Amino acid sequence: MLSFAALYTASLLGAVCGQQAGTLVAENHPPLAVTECAANGCIQTSKAITLDSNWRWLHTTQGFTSCISGNQWDASICSDPVACSTSCALDGADYSSTYGIRTSGNSLTLKYVYSSPFRGSRTFLLDNDSTYKLFNLKNKELAFDVDVSQLPCGLNGALYFAELPADGGISTQVHNKAGAKYGTGYCDSKCPHELKFIAGEANILDWTPSNLDPNSGTGRYGACCAEMDIWEANSISSAYTAHPCSADGLHRCEGSECDGGPTGVCDKDGCDFNPYRLGSKAFFGRGKTIDTNKKFTVLTQFITSNGTAAGDLTEVRRFYVQNGVVRQNSVSSIPGVPASNSLTDSFCSAQKSAFGDTDSFAPKGGLAGIGKAFERGMVLVMSIEDDSDRNMLWLDGTYPPHADPLNPGVVRGECSAGEGIIVEPDDPAPQVKFSNIRYGDLGSTTSVNM
Predict the structure, then answer these.
(1) What pTM does this model have?
(2) Does the keyword Signal apply (predicted)?
């Protein structure tokens, strides 16, 4: 007879999420200290993280039987969305051994575990055991230390905000009995269709298994919401990107409203600032101005129209601190784009035009739209992921891969298409480490004179 541990490990090969709360594995949230700052000083608070439900063990409520094997649902259990939602439960997570997630004091390390069927991970910051911490950063700033030295081409260590429901949807979704404690309610500006549950119901209708990922697929619905990417990066390239949406909070999309064009709910492409893409090829990377061989601090400021939290969000500024030296973000050198080093609506419009990209940013609300999402409250997300569809070339290589690299905006980093295909190496698993997360009034989160 298999031991419980063996059954748990085997079930991970075919189970990733659910909406009932299981009782087979205790959920112990890894603690993580974060710091809130004001002009008169900073206070460290004890918080915790939880694993996204899409990574969790999904099994029948009455036993160990997996509700999904690989990327195929068990039709005998999941005959329809409601039956699946009421018959399947998600359980606690083995954060360290299975997912490579470790916390210590104010630091979070996310490893890319090759031996796990779901090699990456996605985590959310909790305010308490059953509620996500909500942030409003208008007229404020966020700083954190990051080490991307062990992140190669094709991987992305991300820290960002998304407009998830604070309780994971448990109060409004009839079939959701797990809530934020078990990491439910995820959404972002890509309106992801690979989520197994959306708005409390199983996303099994029109489910299509992926040809590239044996543990993934897509369903009829997507989960849309506003997203502010503070940090998407590896040791090669980095970007920060604003993605406004026309809908408030989590919106379950279907059909054309899931698209990124005029009929879509969200600006999927967003307005990004990638130093390499904008002409500063020597600014970020190994041995460059911001040397990714070493830890550094990332500082992001959210500037409003009237200098108060009541004003519209009009600018997102970026600074770096490394070896005690403060450096402003690189400056765009692309013809037709202002010589700017921050996100503004005018910069975004000019960049879209210069790169020949469709402008969905302004129609979806621009920076003011991101500000409105912050007013409603956004959740801090930290993840490590690969990209089986695009090999992360949109971040660190030539994208689209067959586009002319001489065209503005096509080359985003030095990685080749082949380097973005993740295969298990002989060296230890890649990882990203976030630490010393602090937020508060403008000018309050760093001891270095800005």
Answers:
(1) 0.94
(2) yes
